[in-house]
Amino acid sequence: MTRRLLQHPLTLIALAAVLALMARVAGAQEMPAAKARVAVAARALMRGEVLGDSDVVYRDTTVRGDADARVDTKVAAGWITRRVIAAGEVLRSPAVEPPNLVSANDPVEVEFHDGNVRLSIAGTATRGAALGERVSVRTELGHRVEGTVVARGRVRID
Length: 158
Known about the structure:
Blueprint: H1 2-7, H2 9-29, E1 33-41, E2 56-64, E3 80-81, E4 96-97, E5 100-102, E6 107-114, E7 117-125, E8 129-130, E9 134-139, E10 144-151, E11 154-157
Parallel strand pairs: 6-11
Antiparallel strand pairs: 1-2, 3-4, 5-8, 6-7, 7-9, 9-10, 10-11
């Protein structure tokens, strides 16, 4: 009976899958650790708080693999908490995010650069966006364009 079970194709496939999973887990545990300087909450923070200089402390720590891939070392004063954060917790996305430089229905200047040519038109942002994020803008003529937020109230078409 045992010999027949081992010869069954589904048993062989399951055994191969288990061996592959074991190899993957063993490889994940052997990932090299890297030292990094990360932002940590200096005190307990409530949702929606704007981080101040005294709220962020930088500490050296060890980060490993994909689990810590979201650690953002650029967290700074002015960022906003999106959930409750405990004192000593590493500040990472999506728990903290940069502030929006453009809000929904805000008037924005849409600019386009190409060599020596610079065009600029007025528009209205359709949603909020932070520095470097893409946002859709409704122009005065009613057209929709998409660009990247480059400053407060300014969107650049790429």
